[in-house]
Amino acid sequence: KPTIVLFRHDLRLRDNGALAEAARLDKPVIPAFVFDDGEGDLRPRGAASRWWLHQSLKELEKALDGLAGKLIIRRGELSKVVSELVAESGADAVTWNRRYDPNGATADRRMEKALRANGIRTRDFDGHLLHEPSQLATKSGSFYKVFKPFWNALSSGPEHRDPIDVPKSLRAYSGEVWTEPVDEVLPLPKPDWASGLREAWTPGEEGAIAALKEFVAENLRGYAEGRDFPARLTSRLSPHLAHGEITPFTIFAAIAKNRTSNSSDAAKFRQEVGWREFCYHLLSHNPDLAQQNFQRAFDHFPWLTNKRALHAWQRGATGYPIVDAGMRELWQTGTMHNRVRMIAASFLTKHLLIDWREGERWFWDTLVDADQASNPGNWQWVAGSGADAAPYFRIFNPVLQGEKFDLKGEYVRTYVPELAALPDRFIHQPWEASSGVLEKAGVILGENYPAPIVDHATARARALAAYQSVKADV
Ligand code: FAD
Question: Which residues carry the site feature described as Electron transfer via tryptophanyl radical (predicted)?
Answer without folding.
Answer: 303, 356, 379
